[in-house]
Amino acid sequence: GVRRRRGEGARLARASAGDKERFVKGTVAVQPAGFGKSSLRSQLTTPLWILMAIVGMVLLIACANVANLLFARATTRQREIVVRLALGATRLRIVQQLLVESLLLALAGGAVGLMLATWGSRLLLDFFRTPSSTLTVSASPDLRILGFTLAVTVATGLLFGLVPAWRSTQPELAPTLKSEAGSVVGG
Questions:
Q1: Cα(184)–Cα(22) distance, rounded to whole angstroms?
Q2: Are 164 and 158 in contact (CB under 8 A)?
Q3: How far apart, in Å, do the first and last CA atoms of the chain sit?
Q4: 143 vs 4, 87, 121, 148, 151, CA distance in Å?
C-alpha cells in the first residue's frame, strides 16, 4: 500500500496545476454514451445496421407507392391543370404548387416516423434492460437526428414529388379542353 501511494504522489507532483485542481475537487469528465464503449454497443451494432437497411428499403417502397398515388391524383386533376395552363399559369408555378403538396405529405410522414422511431427505440432499450442493470441510455432524439430526419424528409418529398408534378403539367391542352367542353355543354 505504501509504494502505491508514493507512486500516486509522484504522478501528482508531475501533473499540471489544472490536473491537480481537478484531482483535489474529485471531478470526473463524462462523455455522451455514443462516444463511449460498452458491451451493449458491440452487441447491437450488426442488428442495427440490418435494421437500418430494412428501414431504407421500406422507405423506398413507401416513396414509390406515394409517387404512384401522386401520379394518379395528377391524372384526376388534369382538368384543373389544363384550365390553369390555359388561363396563363406557367408550368413552373404549377410544379411548385404540386411540390409544396408533396413536401407537406413528406413532412407529415417524417413527423409520424420520428414519433414512431422514438417510441420504438425506447421499447428496444426496455427489451435489453434487466432489473439489475442501470442502463442510462437516452432514447430521445438530438439535433443530429432531427436534422437528418428533416434532410431525408425534404429530399424524398422533392425527389418523389418532382417527377409526378412535372409530368402532370405536360398534358395536351386542346384535346383535353375539347373533351371537357363537350361534357360541360352536354351537362
A1: 85
A2: no
A3: 103
A4: 45, 45, 16, 8, 12
**Rounded Cα gap, residues 18 and 22, in angstroms:** 6
Question: Mind listing the pLDDT tens digit for each residue in 45-99?
Answer: 888 899 889 988 998 898 888 888 888 887 788 888 888 888 888 888 988 988 9
| CA within 13 Å, CB half, 136 | 5
The answer to whether the CB of 109 falls within 8 A of the CB of 160 is no
List, for residues 84-118, the tens digit of each pLDDT value. Answer: 888 888 888 988 988 998 899 889 988 998 899 88
Contact 81, 171 (CB under 8 A): yes
Return the amino acid letter for 127: F
Smallest CA-to-CA distance from 23 within 31, 12, 13, 9 is with 12
